[in-house]
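A quick aside before the break. I want you to see a complete sequence-to-structure record at least once, exactly as it would be stored in a machine-readable document. Don't worry about memorizing anything.
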Amino acid sequence: MAIAPGARAEPAALTDRRLQARISSRQARCAGGSIDPDEWFPLTVESAQTALSRASHALALCASCPVRAECLELSLRQWHGAGRHGIWGGTLERERRALRRRWLAGISVTKLLPAARPSAPGAPGVPRPRAPRA
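That is the input. The structure line, written in tokens, reads:
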């Protein structure tokens, strides 16, 4: 089936190489973002809320990224490698774990993304994480 000019292919229809090219392109918000690489890999043994808080800047870049679905698709395909760790497609590892079960059942990432957290903490409509009690 041919894709109409100007239309974008469903991420599942792309090869890993094409997905990688898209998420490395100028379209990707992370490609030009001046962000500390450690923010893409929030390591914490504390709560999931702490990981979310530490990743908020990176997640904010992902929230409106035009290649977010491609990024998530690639991470789910590469789950047993780099795709499991860090932030991909605006999701944390624990979120992708749940999304991956549905993806493996045949649900496309474009349908899964609305089920994921829509934006970073503190963005309009998204509550900020609570500070730990003293």
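Two observations worth writing down. The chain has one domain: 16-115. Residues 16-115 form one domain. We'll return to this after the break.
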